[in-house]
Amino acid sequence: MQTSPSHGRSITGGGPRSDRAKEAKEFDETKAGVKGLVDSGMAKVPRLFIHPPQNLRELSPDTDGPATGLEVPIIDMMGYGDCRRRDVVNDLRRASETWGCFWIINHGIPVDAMERMLEAVKQLHEQPEGVKREWYSRDDAKKFGYYCNKDLFTSKAASWRDTIWFDFSRGVLDPEAVPLLCREPVFEYERHFEKLKTSMSELLSEALGLDSDYLGGIGCMKSKRMSCHYYPICPQPELTVGTINHSDASFLTLLLQNHHGGLQVRHKNQWVDVSPVPGAILANIGDFLQLVSNDKFKSVEHRVLARQAGPRVSVACFLFPGEMQKSKPYGPIKELLDENNPPMYREISFTDYFGYYLSSGNGMNGEAVLPHFRAFDKTKAGVKGLVDSGATKIPRIFIHPPENLPDLSNDTEGTGLQLPIIDLRGYRDSRQGDIIDGVREASREWGIFHIINHGIPLDVMDNMLEGVKKFHEQQVEVKDTAFSE
Ligand SMILES: O=C(O)CCC(=O)C(=O)O
Ligand SMILES: [Fe+2]
């Protein structure tokens, strides 16, 4: 596949004033993705893909091998249907509470079905440019398609990754909707996957201490969507990322990857390499499971590094509520609540959660989305905590009905009216009568007035205000001790 050399130049070139939106549009119109750039012989990462330092922080040097000494837990599901069920459930609980992700082995999906799936995805991405061009789209109504960066036009920087998707969320996916080349492997994988999904739903229910059919009963994993990523070799991996740090909005994500590593998860504030384990599937707890489990299970922050090795191929299968359940409110599961475990989140539908997730950059701007839905009072961090957490939108509980809101279009400065100011100097002697008259008048007309020369020294007032400001600006942990409901 070739991208025309002139096109390549226009993307890499551009002086400091050239416009990102224009670069994104030009690149998008090639419909050839990152793979097209690499195939055109591009030796430098185009500016569109260069991330600001805060996105690249801590990318190296621990990119090879588990320098941290930490490793994602591996859970052997062998015998989960009978003799080992209790062990498997306990292992799942521990891993979901501490890591928010874990490998599963002996999960029932044949290794060759997984390999065929990965190979089919690789082949799809490696189709000639002219073939892939027909699939290029960001239209969510389509069941199959291909794009480079869903958020290409809204993100701060693009990521070194192309994606093909299969959407199984609205009923059964019609085989005719996907290219013949991948039909058999995709539907074979999906058939096995459905069985694993049912088992995971039962085991995770039990791991939460609920009946095994609980999560199935609330329909929270009914739908699925497969995002099949292709990460081409990157000539300057220190300048960009494969996938920026984020947690998934889903309930659960089950991930296949080929032998090229690059995936990392955040654990105990360190990035830990998720080195491929042959035949294993990676399970990631998503935000929505953290929400319904009332923080018992943790959604895991993860990212994919851009690398000089590749191409890396992965299949992330996101599980989330079905069509019938998507718009119904979900909140912390009642059975998990008691006086020591108050609800940490307010109720919200998956549709609303996901809408917010997308509008705040697919969770891909490095800012966690879930905290926005915490039951506000439980944070004990106040409005200041919201602002400090980088909230860019006002949470719904703060939004007032129109009748409460001042008419901001009216310029109040233009009225010429001013609050009365009453000078208290001499109120014990010569001016007492005037002052009393002034107070009476202001109380009758306004109900509010300023007083000056009141006897409280200015520095005492300033110190008081400064003290209050300092209190509010303390760490949340310090203020926590003074918080009272
Ligand atoms: O490619 C991967 O391994 C991870 C992809 C991912 O995190 C996602 O699609 O949400
Ligand atoms: Fe993800």
From TrEMBL:
Residues 222-321 form the Fe2OG dioxygenase domain. It holds the Pfam family DIOX_N. Keywords: Iron, Metal-binding, Oxidoreductase. SUPFAM superfamilies: Clavaminate synthase-like. Gene3D superfamilies: B-lactam Antibiotic, Isopenicillin N Synthase, Chain. The keyword Oxidoreductase applies. This is 1-aminocyclopropane-1-carboxylate oxidase homolog 1-like. It comes from Rhodamnia argentea. The gene is LOC115733456.
